[in-house]
Amino acid sequence: MSKSNFPDSFEKNRSEKGISEMADQNDPVQMVLRHKDVRRCAHNWKTFQSGAEPGRIVVPSEVKIRDIRQIPFEVDPPEHGEYRDLVEGWFRRPLKADYEAKLQEQINALVEKSINNGTTEVVSQFALILQSQALTLLLNIPFEESKVWISWGIHVFRSEENPLDGDKANILYTYIDEQIERAVISPGDDLYSTLLASEFQGKKLTKEEVKGIIILTFAGGRDTVINAVTNTIAYFAEHPNSLNRLRDEPEIIGKAVEELVRYFSPLTHMGRVVTADTEVCKHAIKEDTRISLCWASANRDANVFEKPNEVILDRKMNPHVAFGFGHHNCLGAHHARQILKILIKTLAAKVETIDILNHEDNIEEWGDIKRKVGFESINVNFNRRN
Ligand code: EMZ
């Protein structure tokens, strides 16, 4: 019973110092670890800015492989809010009944296929496929297109050989340029066309702006969703009673999703660039350096969460920050929550137990700190419920 255990790697630094420092391409990062500091810094967008040089708030920095600004992610208020208003409605579509029904259909088919296939490698044969197929709904384009994205693998900017792979990034950029041109020539009811027809401050969005929004849609929800899905399956493999409980008490599935997302925290942290000398948690922080808001650490802060290292499926108070906090909270959160909710319902309905055959952990390194964020691979058998 340890494969789905995700230890809290930040506990010592969080309680002793509240901050942890890491190197990154000559642009070090002070990771902010306590829940209250993370929320305070997230609020203070003037001092801790997102609208810096494109790629700089990501850790590891993507400055060397990207000069296009991701929108609204790398824009601060007030423009941030204006962009956000443009796209918010579109990203709330996952809450609609017809969207939910299509997602249910996709997940049903994938779970059925996995049960029938016997052994399934969850990362590449389940989670990546689910994420890519579901993305066709988010973009509102034909299902077949998911095959192209599946061929790109887990991360759009990272390959096995290179954590910042410019060639790989170029595949995505070229693809998006082509898709934008296609939508210019023959507009439809997909996200590209909708954005091309939208106005920002009285002017049509430029292709560059559209590209910035689409890159975010592809990159932001990829490895995060894949990890969340994979980890959820590993968790239920080791906690069959939890799956039984959710079958009997479907009304707590919403809470369970929040709790699993808190516990896994698929996005460890997100950076900000400091605009003036300041202090965080009594540490001096210099202008034009970087901090990161460590969601994963904040989500295990014992000052906020009782028994933070336990999964309590119906946890009552759960002010987790796994989807970020403040203005920049995750645009794709509705979509991600729907995926997990429907996945859990479907597993509960169709699967009795899940056996893990073997696995390899995905361990991130942030300076001295190592953190398990998911799996490189995990082979399972889904056993059908009769
Ligand atoms: C950026 C980021 C957004 C970044 C919410 O996170 O996700 C990362 O996976 C990407 O590499 O470019 O989109």
Descriptive key words:
386 residues, alpha+beta, three-stranded antiparallel β-sheet, 12 strands, 45% helix
Question: How would you characterize the overall build of this protein?
Answer:
The protein has 386 residues and is of the alpha+beta class. Helix content is 45%, strand content 16%. The protein has 14 helices and twelve strands. It has helices at residues 11-16, 35-43, 79-91, 97-117, 122-139, 146-151, 166-185, 191-196, 207-220, 223-238, 240-248, 253-264, 295-298, 333-350, and strands at residues 19-22, 29-32, 48-49, 120-121, 199-200, 203-204, 270-274, 278-280, 283-285, 290-293, 351-366, 369-384. The protein has a five-stranded mixed beta sheet. A three-stranded antiparallel beta sheet has the order 4-12-11. Strand 11 and strand 12 (369-384) form a beta hairpin. Helix 4 (97-117) packs antiparallel against helix 5 (122-139), helix 4 (97-117) crosses helix 14 and helix 10 (223-238) runs parallel beside helix 14. The longest helix is centred in the first third of the chain and has 21 residues, at 97-117. The two termini are 25 Å apart. The mean pLDDT is 97. The protein binds 6-O-methyl-beta-D-galactopyranose. Residues 58, 62, 70, 73, 157, 216, 219-220, 223, 267 line the site of 6-O-methyl-beta-D-galactopyranose.
